């Protein structure tokens, strides 16, 4: 394995279609990129948006959700619930400056081992192009800034921060 | 990592080599060493075959010797062996749900090519499982009673055999068939290969046994339109199409048919593949079960475009007399059935030969499909077994049979239909016997892998049937020489002789392949099954669970799962019946305890979850202003859990903290 | 409104197949379609090139494709079957094979050209049926060819190996087109059989036999003439009657381009449509029957 940066992808696959399709890809000995880590859920409807945010916050560069095709959900309509949340979350992520390509939802039936391979390879390539997301590193930097800020406050130098320069130095007399 | 401090968590980790299936790509000892360094792991081993008896005993022994209270096994897919290892953990004295499984075969060693990458992935997946299992809780398996009645969908030989097997074991069976009679394709066949048993002779006794069996309720001319519920407790809705005859009153005397205002049969007869004619009131074939006639509203004069007009003089009603079996007021009705298990035996449809225009079916009258020939050689067929061309009088002197029509073809269906070689041999034998014609078979490969099959092929060679290896290019009426004039010429590359041949024939037979029914996808959705990419219903495991589906309590048999011959179909139908019997006789099923529940104290009564549940398992307790989940109705999808704004709904086995731990675990390494 | 297509004539339509171009352009004009010929087009890459070096043949074809793209019309029309096939094959190779694409891109770059692969290559038959439509064609008919019995002969290249606009085994676009202008179509099982292609030049006997089979079958089926879409087919079926007669007896039946028949139906003159160029002359049409179409 080379030492250069490798994309890290967390995938949430439903038990009935996509997880089974990934098993089929294995049984068929298809070969695909090794960057994805699959977490099995019973239904794509179980994918809580917080799982996705948490995965990104803990260092994932992208998240993949796999569910059953429309009309084929083992639980009738969990995949639609997933789709609704996905659409909203995708907009939210874009507002946060996270590229749309980092979150992908795919309908993969139990027979589509080939599609598992294709989607994982494509997503890996997309993330490779986008580069690392690096949220934990960003958090660490913000923590550092906050620590420095706290240190300044403790040293009584808080007023020297840039925004303090524009603040009134004295209480207005007429109050 | 230090969260599970409620009790001392002691995890045992096992990584399986699976012979070389895993070990060839993943450095198993290295993964075991790595996991051994993780918190709470008191023991970490690698072993050749974890699913073997010694492997399972190892777990049991370690649990007691090392006071393990959690176990993780990294091996194959949990869909394959989770059950096995939970059993081992339970046998070791632990609650079986203090276990988690890591898939490093199907999802790792089999799909990656770089050992370093595969090993790194195995470590991360194992790390996630270690973190997850620490959060696991003891759970109880719920037992649900199994309704002893069985629904069999489709009344071909598979459905007939499965229904009889169950009925003979004392179980009540509902057999639903959409045609007016059971029997399926087998009833259309003349003889069966390789023994040349008369199909009707071996099928008819079974059909009439179905008709008279006290444990079988036969719902012919009916279709299942809906299936609700879950294993052990299904409710099926069956649409009963109006046959305009009261099944209870009809005695099968057929006086109505004799006295129909149509003196002669006029309409294409479905059972005879359109080669014969029937009246608007008809019985599909002499041995039809039930022996009840049916009136076709599309052709009966008492209807117009299927709507009742009452404009016929209804001589049939007069002929029926005081039996009063004819009832033009019948309408579509729906019936609900309570069953515990379902066996799906919906069969196949023959490939439509018109999809290969180069073979001229539909263009040249004397190009036939194999099913048409089955009827033509049959003594009770449209010509009483007299093989003549479509002009109704000429006996063919030369016959060419083309194999693999709609099979083994990238442009139509890629699969081998398995039965065509053998039925082509059978038809070659029968046609030669009936006509004395020169018979040629054009094949790609001769596939005769069954008991007595190869011997049958040998016999045909000795009978003087000709065999030419080559895929036929076209059937044409282009005569190049005088002896080709007025004939159908087969152009084929004889791949054994190494040149292109033109052979003129009077009759050409297309060995059409087997394919899924046009509405197989609708049936699949209705029954919550899966299909393979070619459209046949998907078995749970191709080797180890060939008649099970991904839905508990629904089993498969016959050609709806893939092309097969009669012996295999009957064997499979027996197997499906045995699977159903096993469930019924056990009397209960153990449900995966992955249901959701509400932490009552924390529910704020926002009702977000209620409309999300597809099973209406969540209700609102107005008195307490809290939502309540009915555990019996919950199927464990987790949709409500994901939606609950206050995190008040918990799903067993897929709890938030378990999943968050798993996420943390897979991302714990740089 | 006039629709414009780029036009790749290829060598045949300027030489042996001149009558094809002579009939195609006025027929399309009558249907409000203008073909703009590529400037400085080169060999399409067919036949000899394709047989010796496929990749170089594709490079030749891609230069034409690149020019068509630059010309800016949405689609390119290639009437000769060989050109039509090679241009389409090159498009497929560009799409499917990065190796071939690499060679082509490098070659084009040498002459400061690029090709994105987006311009569809279409056959006039496809354009007439699927873009112009039978209704528009029927409206232009001034003199329906009623009573003329035609054997529709498609040849091999427009349906094989790609069958983009018609059935591979039983094409019917020309049947429908000729029926629309009044012809009677005879059942012709040799629609897509080999005309002899370039064998007539190298191994004359099997080549001529191919042509003879087609002529003989058209005569057997009672056709007045054979209609074709390809200059090489037309040449093989029209040009070797003496040799065929010497070997197998006379097989005289004219072979014309489908566009020539359309031109006649549109009321254009025989000379204008290049009908005088055929070796086996077409019999004079029966006197026009006055009808109320196209007026």
The CATH architecture designation of the largest domain in chain A is 3-Layer(aba) Sandwich
Spatial ordering of strands, largest sheet of chain A: 2-1-3-4
Helical content of chain A, roughly?
A: 40-55%
* Portion in beta strands of chain A: 5-15%
What kind of sheet is the major sheet of chain B?
A: 5 strands, parallel
Largest interface, counted by CB within 8 Å of the partner chain's CB: A-B, 51 and 51 residues
Task: State the total count of DSSP E strands of chain B.
Answer: 36
Structural class, judged by helices and strands of chain A?
alpha/beta
From the alpha carbons, calculate the radius of gyration of chain A and give it in angstroms: 22 Å
Q: Could you explain the architecture of this structure?
A:
- The complex is a heterotrimer of chains A (175), B (670) and C (295).
- Chain A has 175 residues and is an alpha/beta fold.
- Chain A contains six helices and four strands.
- Chain A has two domains: 125 residues, Rossmann fold; 42 residues, no CATH class.
- In chain A, α1 crosses α4.
- The model of chain A has no long low-confidence stretch (mean pLDDT 89).
- Chain B contains 16 helices and 36 strands.
- In chain B, α1 runs parallel beside α5, α5 runs antiparallel to α16 and α6 crosses α7.
- The longest helix of chain B is centred in the C-terminal third of the chain and has 21 residues.
- In chain C, the strands form two sheets. In chain C, strands 2-1-3-4 form a four-stranded parallel β-sheet. Chain C has a four-stranded parallel β-sheet with strand order 6-5-7-8, sandwiched between helices.
- In chain C, α1 crosses α13.
- Classes of the chains: A alpha/beta (175), B alpha/beta (670), C alpha/beta (295).
- Chains in contact: A-B, B-C.
- Chains A and B meet through α1, β2, α2 and α3 of A and α4, α5, α15 and α16 of B.
Write a brief caption for the model.
The complex is a heterotrimer of chains A (175), B (670) and C (295). By secondary structure, chain A is α/β, with parallel strands linked by helices.
Question: What is the element layout, followed by pairings?
Answer:
The complex is a heterotrimer of chains A (175), B (670) and C (295).
Chain A: E1 9-14, H1 18-27, E2 36-41, H2 49-57, E3 62-67, H3 78-95, E4 103-107, H4 113-130, H5 135-154, H6 162-166
Parallel strand pairs in A: 1-2, 1-3, 3-4
Helix pairs in contact in A: 1-4
Chain B: E1 11-16, H1 28-36, E2 41-47, H2 53-65, E3 70-75, H3 78-91, E4 99-103, H4 105-109, H5 115-134, E5 142-145, E6 150-153, H6 157-168, E7 173-176, E8 191-192, E9 197-198, H7 199-212, E10 216-219, E11 222-230, E12 233-240, H8 255-258, E13 267-268, E14 277-278, E15 281-282, E16 294-295, E17 303-304, E18 307-308, H9 315-320, E19 333-339, E20 341-344, E21 349-350, E22 367-369, H10 370-376, E23 398-405, H11 420-435, E24 438-443, H12 453-463, E25 466-469, E26 472-476, E27 488-494, E28 499-505, E29 507-512, E30 514-515, H13 520-527, E31 554-556, H14 566-586, E32 588-591, E33 596-598, E34 618-621, E35 626-629, H15 639-643, E36 649-651, H16 656-666
Parallel strand pairs in B: 1-2, 1-3, 3-4, 6-7, 6-20, 7-10, 20-31, 22-29, 23-24, 23-29, 24-25
Antiparallel strand pairs in B: 5-32, 8-9, 11-12, 12-19, 13-14, 15-16, 17-18, 21-30, 26-27, 27-28, 33-36, 34-35
Helix pairs in contact in B: 1-5, 2-3, 5-16, 6-7, 6-14, 11-12
Chain C: E1 3-7, H1 18-30, E2 33-37, H2 48-52, H3 54-71, E3 76-77, H4 81-96, H5 98-110, E4 121-122, H6 124-132, H7 134-140, E5 149-153, H8 173-180, E6 184-185, H9 199-202, H10 204-220, E7 225-228, H11 231-239, H12 241-248, E8 255-257, H13 258-265
Parallel strand pairs in C: 1-2, 1-3, 3-4, 5-6, 5-7, 7-8
